[in-house]
Amino acid sequence: MKKAFIKLHISIVLAGFTGLFGKLITLNGGLLAWYRILLAGILMLGILSITRRLTSVSLKDFLRISVPGFLISLHWLFFYGSIKYANISVGVVCFSLTSFFTALFSPILNKHRIVIAELLLSMLTLAGIALIFSFDSQYRIGIGLGVISSIVGSLYTIANERLAKLYPSEVIITYSMLGGALGLSVFMPLYLYFFPVGSIIPSWADFGYLLVLSLFCTVLLYLLQTQALRKISAFTINLSLNLEPVYTIILAIIIYQENKELTPVF
């Protein structure tokens, strides 16, 4: 358990940087999510091929593993949309609601009783979001996108918890990222129709940031979390991830001076 919690906390520190990349990279939310999951899948495929650890799976298993991959791609799409419409701090605070939705959805999907303690703990973040939503009206669109992001994120962790007990972590990450990229690719033409851009090709600077985001804050992050899920429940993972906004907001204040945009209520 100690080793699992250490891996979990390292992944949370890495997750703290994802919001900063969302602000740093100039692509819109959809393209950012698409490039992130695509590059993560390609990088993981390359690493396993070089180390000769690549394991083939059946089409049935690939489709099963792809479901969480598609969920995480949608989670990123709404997460980065929240950051673009509001700011880094609002986006990551909304992410804290993931534990609340996990406490609600996990008993339904896994067919067990609701744990009252989990629900009460997670409702603390719900109260915080409600407070921000009531007073900071300028961020309501960003908050709405962030709430959707946390709903999808909770479903990803619950689905991934099941897979973690059936497949090696590297197999899950590789095929979920590739499957998620394929799934998101189907919806990208529709997304770009409603949110058109001048070019879908990232600049060299954006491409460099995407590589760092994909390798360290995606491949390494989700490998560590998937390994931790073998010992730690999905709710505990998502409750612990409430530390991510703390790290991200501190970094956002230091790097982007976001404290100037935030009210005392926030």
TrEMBL record:
It holds the Pfam family EamA. Residues 9-133, 141-259 form the EamA domain. The chain crosses the membrane at residues 32-50, 62-79, 85-105, 114-135, 141-159, 171-195, 207-224, 236-256. Keywords: Membrane, Transmembrane, Transmembrane helix. One of its GO terms (cellular component) is membrane. The keyword ATP-binding does not apply. The keyword Transmembrane applies. This is DMT family transporter. It comes from Xanthocytophaga flava.
